[in-house]
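seq:
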Amino acid sequence: MAKKFYITTTLPYVNAEPHIGFALEMVQADVLARYWKLQGADIVFNTGTDEHGLKIYQKAVEAGKNPQKYCDEYAAKFENLKKALNLSYTHFIRTTDKHHLEAAQEFWRRCQKNGYIYRKHYKVKYCIGCELKKTESELINNRCPLHPEQQLEIIEEENYFFKFSSFQKKLLKLYDENLEFVVPSFRLKEIRNFVAKGLEDFSISRLKSKMPWGVDVPDDSKHVMYVWFDALVNYISTLGWPNDEKKFKEFWPGIQVAGKDNLRQQSAMWQAMLMAAELPTSKQIMIHGFITSDGKKMSKSLRNVVDPYELVKKYGVDAVRYYLLREIPPFEDGDYSDIRMQEVYDADLANELGNLVSRITNLGEEDGIDGDTIGKTPEKNTKERLDKLIESYQFSEALNYIWALVKQLNKKLDEYAPWKKTKDVRGNFLKQTLNDIYNVGSFLRPFLPETAEKIMNAASGKIRKVAPLFPRI
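struct:
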């Protein structure tokens, strides 16, 4: 029986256009999904859109649109990333889907039945950008440091609360017994420190009269669910929970990919909620950093937000995937610049990889080398090394390793200079080098799927007169 592998991204809010930061998360998750599929695993790869909450409601009102219509328009822009970035996801869930609404309500009922939901009156400072309450210690000049341009909301009402405080010991035990539960390790240490300081119960509902755009609280039509409580349930509702228990048990728990601003929600809040509903916690959570633009935080007001659609239009999908995976560290913050993108495109892709493939495959065609006669067998240690890097989310290091092979092949080709030798002398050299190039293509399949297929087809003779993989721009 094939191994089951489940991976999910977070769900972006549909209050703005897709940006390169979310593209990074999607591409990282896609590498893992493609990699495990190549190992023969049965894959569920989930993404989607988070469509409830005050932030989205206010944006819809500002646009003079019905919230559902507003969400429909923006959800399509995120779903179109599948083609733009050549993503292999199998599930695209929207938190306005009928099944998700029903699953969120059932999840609430289970938490309530187990005694982890209660009502109380409260007053709090609230950041709409984060959709989270903020304590004084988290603020700078009475503003959220992540959204300094937005004024904090003051919420004062009677809400339902989740007994987050009940899960401190259980969460610490989870972290201590699973030292790779959150990767990288410094993020696990960060969330452990947060939990160790003590947890406060948090509000999980809003008055419908003030904020009508949300999932109805079961048996209380005056309240809708807090957006985080509703949205996090997508990770299991997409698997058919609670109706399809068979599929749920086959694929859950899974691996989650999330940005560092989601650390608290994904690795503490969500895990406590799962415990409250008596469901298994996640398998592992990979936390990535942010992308700046020329060293500055991306912001619409600064007009430096990088549009992944525009990048793909100019450079092509695999060039964008390559930049995100090799130039942006998997766990730390990284930077995007147009100058560096052009440098990477010209040096790594057009020159080192593209020219290598063109030179050797054209010689192979000229000599009439049968693709079936090349070995196509990767060196065992090389494959094992790459497998280990991918499975530990070291995407940049994996591509560095592959590019070291590309550089070696270019050097080997220049030193031997097969174009200076006769056909009968250079035959074995070309066969071996075609085999090496075929293997480079094979190694690139999770990262640059279109390019990998072209390389493998060219090296094996399935395609003649290979067009430049990365034409000069």
